[in-house]
Amino acid sequence: MSNSPPATIEDVARMAEVSIATVSRAIHNPEKVANSTRLKVNQAIAVTGYTTNAVARSLRLGRSNMILVVAPDIGDPNFSNILIGLENEARAHGYGILIGHTQNDAQRGLEYLKFLNANQTAGLILFTGILPFGHQAMTARLPPSVGVFEPIFNGGIPYVGVNDAAGARKVVDMLIAEGHEHIAFIGDSRVRLAYMRRRAGFDEGMDAAGLPKSSRMILEGDGTLESGRLAVEQLFMRDRLPTAFMCVNDQTAIGVMIGLSARGYDVPDDFSVTGFDDIPQAVFMSPPLTTIRQPRSAIGKHAMALLLQLLNNEEPTQQEVLLTPDLVVRNSVAAPSRRSHKSRDKS
Fold it and tell me: What PANTHER family does the record tag this protein with (predicted)?
């Protein structure tokens, strides 16, 4: 057994051939350090066995320094960028991340409660919009918890996300400014609070413009590509069509564009289409999709900072932190087509 003294930050700096300040930045603010430098520092940390003070302190206290992140779909394009913000902030304070993937199955959350019961995790980050199945039996023993991306429908725990209503309002205001009056909202929901808030923003914008309820076409959806395609089929069974589609997320919008294309229609010449989230695929659509950009990395960072407050037994300054989203204007929106939208099929 080696009796050599523990590695110091000076050892890491020497091996990585950088300054001590750079090592500190690479550990605590990795986004401010070039990738190549961060890689050298991380390799030096691995070789020397250097342990940051925060991690060492957690080990000495015998307290878990792991945060459990429960997500319904790790393939969701929004997940990875939020996770980056979460992990960077966690690492800066000596915590690590465990990921629990529910695969959109509420009962799978029950499997992850064993980590909580065994005190293997210090805190909980929820992407699911609901507390884990079975939480009722142990609500009092839940660790400090924060919801992200999707407000917790049955929770009452702090939440960090985007201002959904404000984002939706930006979209509908833009569509109205382009001259659209008959707008379809695709993705209405009774269980997903984020979608409900986006619908509220849509209605606020239409009301503010003095447009009657008869000019709105509301269709339910679950945020999938297929729900967007199905909405197009449902709308084409009606006597009157919208001139624009305001979709609850980008996946829905992509489904709408596919459905319109299959019927021989062009976006934006025949119909305008907008999304919400600005997932990577949005810019590669033809035409590129006008949408709302979520500050995903910032959401992750704020959520972890809020959880760290709770872990330190501090009272959070806000129960809900809503970040302002940006409208990203691309080529899927134009003034309403002069063609009639009363017919069901393109002649």
Answer: HTH-TYPE TRANSCRIPTIONAL REPRESSOR CYTR (PTHR30146:SF151), LACI-RELATED TRANSCRIPTIONAL REPRESSOR (PTHR30146)
Q: Give first-to-last CA distance, the chain, whole Å.
A: 83
Residue type, 236: F
**Residues 177, 183, 187: CA angle, nearest 5 degrees:** 125
Distance between CA atoms of residues 96 and 261, nearest Å: 46
- Homologous superfamily, domain 64-157+296-323: Response regulator (3.40.50.2300)
Q: Which of 26, 3, 2, 4 is nearest to 13 (CA)?
A: 26
Q: Tell me how far CA of residue 341 lies from CA of 185, 187, 238, 336, 346, in angstroms.
A: 17, 21, 10, 10, 9
Residue 188: Cβ-neighbour burial (10 angstroms; 0-12, 13-18, 19+):
middle
Token pair recorded at residue 159 = 């939440």
Give the residue extent of every domain in the chain. 9-50, 64-157+296-323, 164-290
Task: Give 164-290's CATH code, choosing from 3.40.50.620, 3.40.50.2300, 1.10.260.40, 3.40.50.11030.
Answer: 3.40.50.2300
What is the strand order of the sheet 244-247 is part of?
A: 216-220, 183-188, 244-247, 272-274
Asked if residues 110 and 134 have their Cβ atoms less than 8 Å apart, the reply is: yes
Q: What is the pLDDT of residues 297-342, one digit of tens each?
A: 999 999 999 999 998 888 888 889 999 999 999 999 999 986 545 4
User: What is the pTM assigned to this prediction?
Assistant: 0.78
Domain pair 64-157+296-323 / 164-290, same fold: yes
Q: How buried is residue 56: exposed, middle or buried, by Cβ count under 10 Å (0-12/13-18/19+)?
A: middle
